[in-house]
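Researcher: Predict the fold of Transporter.
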Amino acid sequence: MNKTFDRYVSVVFLVLGVAIYIYSQTLTVSNVGIAIGPKALPSFLSVILIILSAVNLVVAIRSTTHDKKEEKLEYKKFLIILVSLVLYALLIEPLGYVITTFLFLLIGFQTMEKGKYLQSVIIAAAFAVGIYYFYVEVFLGVLPPLPF
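Model: Structure tokens for Transporter follow.
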């Protein structure tokens, strides 16, 4: 693990999390009877980002190992995840939450660890459908529906 890279990335994501949280508080509260308003999910996710960034920063700072041979950064995997994340954001409205989330997770799983295709498909499908069901049916939130 590259400790210097971890420190810089943690600070960037910490600042990004705080900015997203502040911006999400400016979103309007739903007044159409939906239990979860438009600011609930970005607020929740930004708090998670802040917590995880702070934990990673503390771990990187406390780390006392000085490995002469640090791991090589995997730029190809990073670019694949970044491009698929941009495509996810662009395609979520036309394709719907379930399809885009399933495809994003499948690409992410295969990028991080090739093989285990059936396991990746099952986990991606269960996560996409499960989150959609709980968010839309249980919490009465709104997510982009299936295109058909």
